[in-house]
Design brief:
globular, P-loop_NTPase, about 575 residues, 21 strands, single chain, Rossmann fold, about 35% helix
């Protein structure tokens, strides 16, 4: 038996003024509402629904909406309403049936008494709204989508909200002083760096377009930026978001296309920035550690472009110039989202460059650390455990709660478990280190003409065979993903519900020295091994080992609900058995 009700009211001043309210709950009770027409939807919360509706009818931005639905519940209080409002905005945006016209004025992911008990009620409300045609997809499909995971309306936990507030405060202060600055947002995998970047772009564009504080529903920590001269300070703002990885860049481009005030053209490569004829006011760089220094690029054309950009921006082509220098030259304010321990190739920014820019940001009070683990349900201690284990200095396995972390002795059994979890939760995938040649690479001469099912297998373990990911972009959602194995280049920056991680023979255990070692003979990422003769750099096994261990740390922290591990090297498997619960 449900205790909630949904009042459907025509969205016009006369209907709202004359609407009966015998219980008084439409004028004095916590409520959540959605106002829509066939195309757009606006979601809010209030303690006086009819009064708030009347205010909205006077807003030119909402004049085209025609029906309001007010959600009432005996148990609602303002914290529950904030929570449901935030969820509905994210669900509407991610579903895509309507365009969400809310401003991104701060959606808080905050705890309150009884929050857990409200979650089934909220999902029940979703199902009722879906039955009435307001949603087209199932809730599972919505919450597994990139649109939900990368939503510009994502609820922020307190340290994310604090970082966004402090960045905005610093930005407006720097605007007033007319000084150029570089900020750094630092955090481990799963702390929500990408979400903060997307949220910042949306928030800046919404502040620029704001009329005043009346548009801010929640009175959040950033609501004040929507009034008091802040919108005028952003007039004509030129803002962009730089995404070094091709796959993630494509996904974020689709996310931007769906959100008012954003569009795909704002999602950039470093080369786009370097070639831009007009500088940017603000550039936000996701995975900034993946920017390149001067190293061999993927094509001769890009090598030539690197040289030309250096000459155009700095007057000469210095081998010391990096893509980070392009970002800083081409923007008045740059915001770098980074984690040095997620660098996975020698062409990535060198550690000393990252250290220098982090030091500058700390010295100027433009450094914003993130601590809260948003992805892995086992928490931040799990991430530290994984990194310590790969470094050969494991701490005791932390308490994992319901998180499934298992070492699997047979790779076929792990595949079966991944398929089962995929049926239950979706987004369960096999991933691996780059320890096998990519024979089925569709870019190889003549390979595109061969149907996928007839291409050679890349990975053979025991009696199992797989191909590497056949899709360069959005692989985890591609039709063939469950039959394939994803590499670091298709999963970095993404969330999975379950990850089945194959640790290949590129890592082995040296029993004599008690160390985990890199084996170059079983590593096949050409760009991951490539020396830098132009700069006179040759990479030793110890150099490459750092990147390979970073790769596995990234893969082992993709799973929201669980991570299964299969290790090819038997001595390494036995070594891990002391730290990871085992399924034989």
């Amino acid at each position: 038996m449900t205790s909630f009700e949904i009042e459907k009211i025509p969205f016009d001043a006369d209907s709202i003024r004359d609407y009966p309210d015998p219980t008084g709950r439409l004028t004095n009770w916590p409520a959540v509402y959605a106002i829509n027409n066939r195309k757009d939807v606006y979601v809010g919360e209030t303690g006086s629904a009819l009064l708030r509706m009347a205010q909205h009818t006077r807003d030119p931005k909402k004049k085209h909406l025609d029906v309001a639905r007010i959600l009432l519940d005996d148990t609602f209080h303002r914290s529950a309403c904030y929570d449901l409002e935030s969820l509905l905005i994210q669900w509407f945006y991610s579903d895509g049936e309507y365009t969400v016209i809310n401003a991104n004025d701060g959606h808080r992911n905050e705890q309150y008494a009884g929050r857990q008990a409200f979650q089934p009620r909220f999902r029940e409300i979703f199902e009722v709204l879906r039955s009435r045609g307001l949603f087209r997809q199932s809730l599972e499909a919505i919450e597994n989508s990139d649109f939900f995971k990368l939503s510009p309306f994502k609820s922020l936990v307190p340290d994310q909200e604090r970082a966004v507030h402090d960045i905005l405060e610093a930005l407006f202060d720097d605007f007033e002083k007319s000084q150029s600055t570089t900020m750094v947002v630092s955090g481990n995998p799963g702390t929500g760096k990408t979400v903060i970047g997307i949220s910042l772009v949306k928030t800046l564009r919404d502040i620029e377009a704001a009329r005043g504080i009346d548009d801010a529903e929640q009175g959040s920590s950033i609501s004040d930026f929507f009034a008091g001269g802040y919108p005028e300070a952003l007039e004509g703002l030129r803002v962009g978001m730089v995404i070094p990885q091709q796959s993630l860049r494509s996904s974020i481009g689709r996310v931007f296309d769906r959100a008012p005030g954003l569009d795909r053209s704002m999602v950039l490569t470093a080369f786009d920035v370097g070639k831009a004829s007009e500088p940017y006011d603000v550039l936000i760089v996701d995975e900034a550690h993946r920017l390149n220094h001067r190293a061999n690029q993927a094509s001769g054309m890009l090598n030539k472009s690197f040289e030309e950009i250096n000459e155009r921006l700095f007057g000469s082509d210095s081998l010391e110039t990096t893509q980070l220098d392009w970002i800083r030259k081409q923007s008045k304010h740059s915001i770098l989202l980074m984690d040095a321990e997620q660098s996975v190739r020698p062409a990535d920014l060198p550690p000393e460059v990252i250290g220098e820019v982090v030091g500058e940001a700390k010295a100027s009070h433009h450094f914003f650390p993130l601590q809260t683990q948003m992805r892995v349900k086992a928490g931040e201690e799990y991430v530290r455990f994984v990194r310590g284990m790969l470094a050969g200095a494991p701490a005791p396995l932390p308490e994992l709660g319901e998180y499934e972390f298992l070492l699997i002795d047979e790779v076929g059994a792990m595949e079966t478990m991944i398929r089962k979890r995929n049926q239950e939760f979706g987004l369960a995938r096999l991933v691996a280190g780059y320890a096998w040649k990519w024979k089925s690479d569709p870019k190889k001469k003549g390979m595109k003409r061969i149907p996928l099912a007839k291409r050679p297998y890349d990975i053979e373990i025991e009696d199992r065979y797989w191909r590497w990911n056949s899709a360069d972009t959005d692989w985890i959602n591609s039709p063939a993903a469950l039959e394939e194995v994803g590499s670091i280049h298709t999963v970095q920056g993404y969330d999975l519900n379950y990850a089945g991680v194959i640790i290949g023979p590129d890592l082995r255990f040296d029993a004599e020295n008690g160390k985990i070692r890199f084996d170059r003979t079983h590593y096949f990422d050409k760009k991951g091994l490539e020396n830098n003769p132009k700069r006179g750099i040759s990479y030793t096994d110890a150099d490459i080992e750092r990147y390979v261990k970073n790769i596995y740390a990234v893969l082992l922290t993709r799973g929201i609900r669980g991570t299964f591990v299969y290790v090819c090297d038997e001595p390494l498997r036995e070594y891990f058995r002391a730290f990871i619960p085992t399924v034989s």
